[in-house]
Amino acid sequence: MSVSHRTRSAPGPIVAGLFVVVLLLVIVFALATGTDLVGALGAAVGSMFPLPSATVQGDDIRSLYNIVFFIAAAIFIAVEGLIVWTVVRYRRRPGDDELPAQTHGNNLAEALWTIIPTLIVAYLFFISWQTLNRVDAISDQPGLHVRATAGQFQWTFDYLAEDGKTVEYTQFVPTGDEGGLSVPVGQPILVDLESPDVIHAFSVPRFLFKKDVVPGQTNQLEFTVNEAEAGQTFRGQCAELCGSGHAAMLFDIHAMTQADFDAWYEQATASATASGGPAESLPPNSLTLEQTAEQVQFNKRELEAKANQPFAIHLENKDDTIPHDLDITGADGKKVFDGEVFPGPEDRVYQVDPLEAGTYEFFCSVHPDMTGTLTVK
């Protein structure tokens, strides 16, 4: 039986034609809908990469990601290209009733698809191991040593002395311009991570890495904020589902120049020293208002005081390890009293200067949802 042999058409023109048609359809769609094709393409490509790194460690991680991404992209393009080429080149045509010549076994091909993946995996393992060692490295003399305590559902930051144990200043408010963790740029910041209850995680998206906070042990991480990020504030969060209040476990990191940090730290430590402990005595004949903070809420939402007379507020914090305070603002939103933040279980007696008659709002600066009304008449 004779077999006719027909010359197969080259697949190149067909593939090129399909590509041109698809490209024209995309352009027409973009023009019809008013889509910024260049911007959309840039956003699509950018979404494949991590956020811009703000730390030295994050730069290492992003470099590793780029290498892995481009190797994976090259393999994907090569494999998909070969699949498309094979489909077009060896597609069945009318009259093709017999199987083409079959190849069984190819020593060169088998060697290549074994050796090349092995080399790629070995290379990725080596550079990943190097990056992990750099990211996990701890300096002998960090520029700042901090202890971050994650408790349900609150972050507190203790600034430690050179001995790594003595607390020089404690920041109970985890977010806001007057709260959060303030650090100098260009200096290694060593953070001891502790938890009194469940597993939490210290995560800042722009740092590109995180560390778990495990009860019963102290984990450490170190980061160095790039000097170009001075003046920036980074939002951090707990990255482990730690309970019903998990969403509230946010914190800010304020990056400062060394000079600005030194000035802030001197003022913060001086303010903490001057604040002292609870008041030992009350003004004669003063009114004392009782208030309790428990389960992250005030037990009284309404308080009353006399106009133009000093009074005291006895705040009992029953929430273990969770800090609270009591601040007062007027109708114009300006703060007329700023109470000391302190963790529970403890109590404080705040002495408030005379207020004019009117309606005021009191709240916890650490937990803005804890609010109430103070009526002065």
Topology at a glance:
Layout: H1 12-33, H2 37-46, H3 56-89, H4 107-136, E1 144-151, E2 154-160, E3 167-171, E4 181-184, E5 188-194, E6 200-204, E7 209-213, E8 219-224, E9 233-238, E10 250-256, H5 258-275, E11 287-293, E12 302-305, E13 311-317, E14 323-324, E15 327-329, E16 335-338, E17 342-343, E18 346-352, E19 358-363, E20 371-376
Parallel strand pairs: 1-5, 4-10, 11-13, 12-20
Antiparallel strand pairs: 1-2, 2-3, 5-8, 6-7, 6-9, 9-10, 13-18, 14-17, 15-16, 15-19, 19-20
Characterize the structure shown.
The longest helix has 34 residues, at 56-89. With 377 residues, this protein is of the alpha+beta class. β1 and β2 form a beta hairpin. α3 packs antiparallel against α4. A 5-stranded mixed sheet has the order 3-2-1-5-8. A 5-stranded mixed sheet has the order 4-10-9-6-7. Strands 12-20-19-15-16 form a 5-stranded mixed sheet, with no helix packed on it. It contains 5 helices and 20 strands. It starts with 11 loop residues before the first helix and ends with a strand. The protein has 3 domains: 12-92 and 106-136, Helix Hairpins, CATH 1.10.287; 144-275, Immunoglobulin-like (Sandwich); 287-376, Sandwich (Immunoglobulin-like).
